Amino acid sequence: MGGDRETHRTDRRVFRNGRLALSQCLVYLAASGDRLRAEKLLKERRRSLDYVPEVSVVTQLVLKLFGVGEGTRQVEVVDAFKLRISSECRPY
User: Fold this and answer.
1) Are 42 and 69 in contact (CB under 8 A)?
2) Alpha-carbon distance 87 to 6, whole Å?
3) What is the reported pLDDT for 14?
4) Which of 17, 25, 42, 53 meets the CB 3.0–4.6 Å disulfide criterion with 80?
5) pLDDT by residue (tens digit) across 44-70?
6) Cα–Cα distance between 17 and 4 in angstroms, integer?
């Protein structure tokens, strides 16, 4: 049983690392001026990026700074990070 739990943790880590790599690639393309390629990749892989909400919202905000994508709504940012923020810091 312990092996199954460890395998599951490893799978989640690999899954998350893949989303981080996608995020880094998108931001690099946008920052280096290849906005068309970044837009195309974002359109193709957006659903994949959305599986890790924290990565998704931060990536979308940074991409918006470079003129790629539509950004994200405030509520999406709050929802993505609400469990990581102590209750004393939350507005509600």
Assistant:
1) yes
2) 31
3) 57
4) 53
5) 998 988 888 999 999 999 999 999 999
6) 20
Q: Residue 71: its pLDDT value, please?
A: 92
For residue 56, which of 73, 40, 32 has the smallest C-alpha distance?
73
> Could you tell me the CA-to-CA distances from 81 to 22, 28, 57, 78 in Å, in that order?
20, 24, 10, 5
Answer whether 45's CB lies under 8 Å from 68's CB: no
Whole-prediction pTM value? 0.77
Question: Which two structure tokens, joined as six digits, stand for 76?
Answer: 């999406």
Contacts with 7 (C-beta within 8 Å, 6 or more apart), sequence order: none
